[in-house]
Write a structure and sequence with these properties.
There is one protein chain. Helix 4 packs across helix 13, helix 5 crosses helix 6 and helix 9 runs antiparallel to helix 12. The chain is built from 15 helices and no strands. The two termini are about 40 Å apart. By secondary structure, it is an all-alpha fold.
Length: about 350
């Protein structure tokens, strides 16, 4: 992954010698911010800790240094609760941002986002159906994650099959199909929520709908973390192709880009990333829509720059949104999706106003 980043940065810097800030400087600066943010996320929370204790815990688990004077509760909070959340937030936020960039590129629609193809509505329908039917062990996060992931992929398959039937290509017809399927699935999910007999089930579904990283632990973040990272590699390697298809299908074909294959495979990886995120963190809105647009205002629309910076900025953004979710109303935790909307929406609107001026 590191070698891919270095190769990618060197290539883009050769192509864009005229830019004010080379890609390598952007990457280095954001990586420093991410490192500081992960440490801060392990330190900040409803339970007050000493910074030196956080440092000792991390040093102990990474290099085997002694834990002199650190309570067992502090070690558990830092290593078992807060650090896994920060790393999962990095992967989820980055994955959603990259999926948003890719979705807008392959559909050539600036209003597209990862949830456009009905992934979130399929996951929601699967989860609400299980709660409604009263399946046992629903408090097990693994059962909910599996149901959400299966529902997300099933919805994607349905939308893709209907949206490309008779055309053989991806277009606005795919987006319209995704919107229609989402409306139907959301209506069914709302019916299940309204008619659920247990109030606790309703609360559980609502919390999942608005997103949360509270279930992140070392034993369950490996699959989503590395699955999202490996999926983003495909998009990093095809940044130039995304720039090419923005010139039009005929131009892209003349330049040797297999447009049909690129779009089909991209949709599959977008669905995989989105399915993994909703399975492990619920539905976290706006990240895949706002981050790409904000960065286009700042660094431009070159996908070779936009894709890696979107991943890092999306992860950085979600790390701090998770911190806010934990400390806003202690000891209660607020769903993270509320803060992504409250913080991301006004920033995006302000950028639009400045651009119009």
């Amino acid at each position: 992954m590191v070698s891919l980043f270095i190769t990618h940065m060197q290539q883009v810097d050769k192509d864009e010698q005229s830019t004010k800030a080379p890609l390598v400087l952007w990457i280095a600066g954001i990586l420093i911010l991410i490192f500081v943010s992960v440490i801060a996320a392990a330190f900040i929370g409803s339970v007050n800790l000493f910074f030196i204790d956080v440092f000792k815990v991390i040093r102990h688990h990474l290099w085997g240094c002694p834990l002199a004077g650190v309570k067992d509760s502090a070690e558990f909070i830092v290593w078992e609760l807060r650090l896994p959340r920060a790393l999962l937030a990095l992967a989820v936020g980055g994955g959603l941002a990259v999926a948003g960039v890719a979705m807008q590129a392959v559909t050539q629609n600036v209003m597209a986002e990862p949830y456009t193809i009905g992934v979130s509505s399929g996951a929601l329908l699967a989860v609400t159906s299980l709660y409604y039917l009263g399946f046992p062990h629903l408090q097990n996060s693994m059962a909910i994650s599996i149901a959400a992931f299966c529902g997300a992929l099933a919805a994607m398959a349905l939308v893709y099959n209907i949206g490309t039937r008779g055309t053989g290509r991806l277009s606005n017809h795919l987006i319209l199909t995704g919107m229609a399927v989402s409306i139907i699935f959301n209506a069914a999910s709302n019916y299940f929520i309204i008619t659920m007999p247990a109030e606790s089930s309703i609360r559980g579904v609502l919390n999942w709908m608005m997103g949360s990283l509270s279930n992140a632990r070392w034993h369950n973040i490996g699959i989503p973390f590395f699955g999202i990272l490996l999926s983003t590699v495909y998009f990093f390697r095809h940044g130039r192709d995304f720039d090419t298809i923005s010139l039009g299908n005929e131009t892209a074909l003349s330049l040797g880009v297999n447009v049909v294959k690129l779009r089909k495979v991209s949709i599959l990886f977008i669905a995989l990333i989105t399915g993994l995120t909703v399975a492990c963190a619920g539905i976290i809105g706006l990240v895949g829509f706002i981050i790409p647009h904000v960065l286009r205002f700042i660094i431009g629309a070159n996908h070779q720059r936009l894709l890696p910076i979107s991943f890092l900025c999306g992860g950085l953004f979600l790390i701090w949104m998770d911190v806010l979710a934990r400390i806003a109303v202690p000891p209660q935790e607020i769903p993270i999706g509320i803060f992504t909307a409250l913080c991301g929406g006004p920033v995006f609107v302000s950028l639009l106003i400045r651009k119009n001026r």
